[in-house]
Amino acid sequence: MIAIVVIELLSLRYEQAKEYRFFVLFGSILPDIGNFTILFGKSGERIKPFFEALHTPFGFLILAALIVYLTRKEWRKVIFYLVALGGMLHFIADMLIITLNGKIMVLYPLSLNKYSIGVFRQGEFIFLITAAIIALITLLASRIYRKYTGLSYCQSSR
Amino acid sequence: MLVLILSLLLLHSGTVYVKKYPYTTYVLEHPSEYEGKVVALRGEISEINVEGKTYILTLSHYGREFKAYAPIGMLQNLNFEVGDILDLKAVSHLKNNYVVVEDILLWNSWQYKWLFYRSIIGGMVVIGVLLADWKKIRKVMVFA
Fold first, then answer.
1. pTM
2. Number of folded domains in chain B?
3. CATH number, residue B31
4. Which one of A40, B24, B25, B120 is at 20 to 30 Å from A141 when CA atoms are compared?
């Protein structure tokens, strides 16, 4: 949801931001790729640590760098920035969660210490509702801004 | 590219072999290492008892049962019941099969289900955007 809001705001300044929103959204869920292990119950709990490195900024950036090899050379830099932006938004949102041992190993591999700002408890609907209201207000405000400034969504592509 | 892949593998080995931070399963399987220490634990409530000013919850995690002692004031507003799952911050005495609860980090079964469904919803949104923007995305991909 945060990624959607950021794309909307970016598109006010950079017209093409909305065209490549997929990469920001993709980046924002990529660090949680290890979540599929939930499907495997106890075995899943055991293999989840193998994906822990992807839930660190450094590990994520390496994975993002690998993924951009799937894109054309001239686009790699831009796509990397978009995927990285999505990932960093994910980490910022995760760091807001109240945890015992911290949430993100920000300095990994230099340190295994986890850090968290601790604003809300995971799973709290009040946070989800607040985020949804902020997202709705932003989208509405953006549309009103576009209407009064004559700014339109970019339909062209490079 | 090879350097990136090797770096990623090295990073993976780092998180797998250095268990400095306690996972629930790890704490339960190696209780003596965490005796008297504050740990994060997850367990499903199988029994609730009240003794004086203390709640005694019987929790189970992957078949291992242990008691969790918590002051009434900490839990009275949570409206929990048998079957709910708790994430606890607790002092471990798991050698003797109990923990002393310091805080509840997350509780309720639907909250855990929500964590799972949230991942699915997130994935579906991204797939939806991928399909909607496919023509534009294809232009930047190597296989286009």
1. 0.75
2. 1
3. 2.40.50.140
4. B120
Selected for mutation to probe chain B from A30, A62, A74, A110 (highest B CB count within 10 Å) is A62
Question: Highest-confidence range of A61-75, A132-146, B108-122, by mean pLDDT?
Answer: A61-75
Domain range spanning residue B80? Answer: 21-108
DSSP notation for A50-117: GGGGGGSHHHHHHHHHHHGGGB-GGGHHHHHHHHHHHHHHHHHHHHTB--SS-SB-TTTTT----B--
Alpha-carbon distance of A100 to B87, in angstroms, equals: 10
Of A66, A70, A99, the CB nearest to B105: A99
Using a CB-CB cut-off of 8 Å, the residues of chain A touching B24 are: 45
- Residue B67 within any structural domain of the chain: yes
First to last CA, chain B: 21
Are the beta carbons of A123 and B136 separated by less than 8 Å?
A: no
pLDDT at B114: 76
Residues of chain B with pLDDT under 50: 18-21
Chain A contact present for B111, CB below 8 A: yes
**Residue B64 falls inside a structural domain:** yes
Partner B contacted by A155 (CB < 8 A): no
Asked if residue B93 is part of any domain, the answer here is: yes
